[in-house]
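Note on ligand handling. Small-molecule inputs were canonicalized before submission; formal charges were left as drawn, and no protonation-state enumeration was performed. Where a ligand contained multiple stereocentres, the stereochemistry in the source SMILES was retained. For zinc ion, this procedure yielded the string shown in the input block below.
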Amino acid sequence: MQGSFPHNDRSTGARPVLTSLLRGAAQKCPACGKGAMFRRYLKVVDACPHCGEELHHHRADDAPPYFTIVIVGHLVVGLVLAVEMTHRPPLWVHAALWLPLTLILALTVLPIIKGALVALQWALLMHGFDPDAEEVIGDGLPDVDPSPLPRRLDFRP
Ligand SMILES: [Zn+2]
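Structure output:
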């Protein structure tokens, strides 16, 4: 791991992607690598308790569960097939093995993936992480005044 880098430097070069990803995967602040990223299981802190870097800008949304399902699914399905092909155990053995393993893996991998994704968004200056971005109020679309509709149609010549 590298040491802390200037997190409030206003250039993208000050935010190395790989270092940030590793720090996020370790569930640490992507800027300093010391403060905890989560205040609870999957609740991202508003700001790093160590360096004060704002982390509330993240928009991880559905990406962490998506990648978790992809990773855990491929792993468990591969194991299920391997065990079935080599040992052909009864179904209750499959259920006893794979259901708890899937649950434990998913709950273990999910915060790792979420931490890495939040750190990636931070490193790539996505969403509100860009200090030079103008603040967007509302949906970012220009206000358009809709033309008034006629109250009634008048077909008289
Ligand atoms: Zn920090």
